[in-house]
Write a structure and sequence with these properties.
Helices cover 38% and strands 16% of the residues. By secondary structure, it is of the alpha/beta class.
Length: 446
């Protein structure tokens, strides 16, 4: 059982079950009765049967419960491996920004060598996708454009070629961009092209310009704001992310108020959230001096103080929980923390295939090499990333959150060497998503 105290309802909990997905609003006293059922109970026979059906009481032993969860996890992992094939393209390793917390290798991003897709390599990449997953219905029809910076004005011709060729093949596009040169790609924005953008703003103008630094022009804020408006006017969805550490998180309120004054929140295609910068990436000592990384606990405390919980990253759980409440259905399971554990393929212009965005440029995580005629897989990397489900991980296989969490980001586990931080992050995120979903559900039904 996962009981979550409801912030808006005195003495009430949302009770969720870890392997049935059941979700119910109950009183604190009723929760106490369920917990003490071995000592005797005052439940009617029909209530007992309901509690059994929803999983809150069980006739299974603890070992039988663990084995049952393991079977579910293996089946869902196998299903995801078959059904979830998605692709990201590192359009270019080069970037026009010099952000102090960038985790990608500087020699790739800031060097004189231009590393970008050619038309020939684009054609090979599309053929490679067909080889990886020949069944069109099993391929996600969305390609994420990534970098470096994918939307550099100097790469306008090749980006147009990528999108035009992708449209012809039935793909739509998402771009993770700094937003500075979006105005050069207006013709590609919209529902049938680049239909969603993720853009970073690190605070109001003065703070943002100190952190999101253009290699020639330090004032990036105003141009990005203008480009956000341009994208929204084209019907493109815009997700604004605020990367936060101890030095800028207090500027969250000022940035939110500025975005409200720009009337961005009036547009249903606009979304804003706050995210924690992590200090365990490959960041230079000089750059590290300009940052103050926060622990998950410090970040959560700040979010509550700043009333930023509704604008926090929840990896989609708010929506899943809200829909479950509205439709009176169980909360769907997520046996994977991310698609990199099954069918995510990140293709770069050098012919490398990586498992996820975070590993781009790190040779030890290359899981394949693609050329015009073949793909050569690195079995050792594939096994590390894709062959382990949550029931094979310690301590995940004993955790009541296992089928919701999926074991956390595999790359962060590799970097940290332990799970404690990720467990804290997920529990807090799950609790926040539940309270946000319930508050919205309550508002809509009353």
């Amino acid at each position: 059982m996962i009981p979550v105290k409801l912030e808006k309802e005195e003495g009430k909990y949302m009770l969720i079950h870890g392997y049935t997905g059941a979700a119910d609003i109950i009183s604190e006293s009723f929760l106490g009765k369920i917990k003490s059922i071995e000592e005797g109970h005052n439940f009617s026979e029909s209530m007992l049967q309901t509690l059994l059906k929803r999983g809150y009481i069980t006739t299974k032993t603890q070992d039988e419960e663990y084995e049952y969860v393991a079977r579910i996890a293996k089946a869902l992992h196998k299903e995801s491996d078959i059904l979830l094939t998605s692709f990201t393209w590192v359009v270019s390793y080069n970037c026009n920004f010099r952000c102090p917390y960038c985790f990608e290798e500087r020699n790739l991003k800031d060097g004189k060598t231009v590393l970008v897709f050619t038309k020939e390599q684009v054609d090979i990449a599309y053929e490679t996708q067909d080889r990886i997953q020949p069944h069109r219905k099993l391929r996600k029809n969305i390609i994420t454009l990534y970098g470096g910076e994918p939307l550099l004005a100097e790469n306008k011709e090749i980006v147009n070629y990528i999108v035009d060729e992708g449209r012809r093949r039935g793909y739509k596009f998402v771009a993770v961009t700094n937003g500075y040169e979006i105005d050069q790609f207006v013709n590609l924005l919209g529902e049938d092209g680049i239909y969603r953008l993720q853009i970073t703003l690190d605070g109001p103008r003065e703070i943002h310009n100190q952190r999101r630094i253009h290699y020639k022009n330090h004032n990036t804020f105003d141009k990005i704001i203008s480009n956000i408006q341009l994208a929204l006017d084209k019907g493109t969805r815009v997700v604004v992310r605020m990367n936060s550490d101890g030095r800028n998180i207090d500027q969250y309120v000022a940035l939110k108020e500025y975005l409200e004054r720009k009337h961005f929140f009036d547009n249903p295609n606009f979304y804003f959230y706050i995210a924690r910068l992590r200090g365990y990436y490959n960041i230079s000592d000089t750059e590290r001096e300009s940052l103050t990384f926060m622990s998950p606990q410090q970040f959560d405390l700040k979010r509550y103080q700043l009333k930023a919980i509704p604008f926090s990253q929840d990896t989609g759980y708010y929506k899943l929980i809200y829909q479950a409440l509205v439709n009176k259905k169980s909360i769907p399971f997520r046996p994977l923390a991310c698609k990199a554990q099954t069918g995510e393929y990140v293709l770069d212009p050098l012919g490398n295939i990586y498992p996820c965005w975070g590993t781009v440029g790190k040779k030890e995580h290359i899981k394949g090499i693609y050329t015009k005629n073949r793909i050569t897989w690195n079995k050792q990397v594939l096994e590390k990333w894709q062959d382990i489900d949550v029931s094979q991980k310690e301590p995940c296989k004993y955790c009541k959150y296992a089928l919701f969490c999926g074991g956390g980001c595999p790359y962060h586990r590799m970097l940290l060497g332990n799970e404690e931080q990720q467990c804290i992050i997920f529990r807090n995120m799950f609790k926040s998503a539940i309270n946000k979903a319930y508050a919205e559900f309550n508002k809509q039904t009353n």
